[in-house]
Amino acid sequence: MAVPKRKISKARRDKRRASNVKMTAPNIIECPKCKAPTVSHRECGECGYYHSRDSKQKEA
Question: Which InterPro entries does this UniProt record tie to the protein (predicted)?
């Protein structure tokens, strides 16, 4: 019966298993203010709106 000569480290084992993990696509919603597509739980890239407040500074 085949027996490994040395213990395989956790790092090496986890590197081998890392390629089998399936990533999920981010949840895309539309901004309630400007209706642009944005990732949920992030500020809008177009208008800067997030959770009832504007985070982008107005340019003068």
Answer: Ribosomal_bL32, Ribosomal_bL32_bact, Ribosomal_zn-bd
